[in-house]
Each structure stands twice: as structure tokens, then as C-alpha cells.
Design a protein that fits this description.
mainly alpha; 72% helix; 147 residues
């Protein structure tokens, strides 16, 4: 059972995330991001969300690759054959270290791309928001963090 306090926290957290997604999307469709201005707002929107999804897969894969070495692979050989094959190769020799180094470069590339798609240009205004809200959400970057 969710307490009243937890319910309030969940509500305002979700409201802030939705608000952030709306203002970042509005930035794109008013050509107030680098990618939207140089290419097209739809391209910026699609590339940003594909980047976010890709980032979640990269981070999830890293958690699995780092967390599974102490687990006996024979325990999941039958139930998760793909995981077994990946871990058999990834945990051999120094492959895990090499994977982590390459993954870090990929994370930098993905973050840079997401930033090009959604970060506001200097002096961007969106949805007629008061300057204080624009400074808080766009100037500080909190809208991009929450998105």
C-alpha cells in the first residue's frame, strides 16, 4: 500500500517528468535546439528518443556484464542461452575491460547526440513560460536530465 506521502512524491515526480518532456519537445518544434534548427524538428525528436532507448540498453548491458562474472554460467545455460553465449565470450581474458572501455566511448557519443537534439539554444523561449521557469528548467539543464 502506498502512503499518502509516497503518492504525493510519485505524482509530482511524474508531473515534472511530463512537463520536462513537453518543454523539450516544444523546443524542438520551435527550432530552438541545434539539431532541430540544422535538420528538422521531427529528426531531432526521433534521434533523441532513439538515443535515450539506446542508452538504456547500453547501461543495462553493462550492469549484466559486470554483475554476472561471479555467477556460475552453467546455472543459466539452458534457460538463457543467448546470455550464456555473450558471457562466455565477454568474460574470457580481458574482454570485459575492453568492452567497458568501448562502452564508455559509446556513452559519450550517445550523450553528445542527445544533447544536440534536445538542449536549448542560447536565449531560447518556449511555451511563453516566465523567465524564472525557463532559467530553472532550460538554463540549468534540469529538463534534459528529467527527460
Amino acid at each position: 500500500m502506498v502512503s499518502v506521502i509516497d503518492g504525493i512524491k510519485q505524482f509530482y515526480s511524474m508531473a515534472l517528468v511530463i512537463f520536462s518532456v513537453v518543454i523539450v519537445t516544444a523546443l524542438m518544434f520551435t527550432d530552438n535546439t541545434k539539431m532541430a534548427q540544422d535538420a528538422h524538428p521531427v529528426a531531432a525528436l526521433v534521434i533523441m528518443w532513439l538515443g535515450i532507448l539506446w542508452m538504456s540498453m547500453v547501461e543495462g548491458g553493462q550492469c549484466s556484464m559486470v554483475g554476472l562474472p561471479p555467477i556460475d554460467r552453467e546455472l543459466y545455460k539452458e534457460s538463457h542461452p543467448t546470455t550464456y553465449k555473450i558471457c562466455s565470450l565477454g568474460h574470457k581474458g580481458n574482454n570485459l575491460d575492453r568492452y567497458l572501455m568501448g562502452r564508455q566511448f559509446m556513452v559519450i557519443f550517445i550523450n553528445f547526440t542527445i544533447n544536440l537534439c534536445g538542449a536549448p539554444l542560447e536565449g531560447a523561449e518556449v511555451l511563453g513560460l516566465p523567465e524564472i521557469l525557463t532559467d530553472i528548467f532550460l538554463g540549468s539543464g534540469i529538463a534534459m536530465v528529467l527527460t
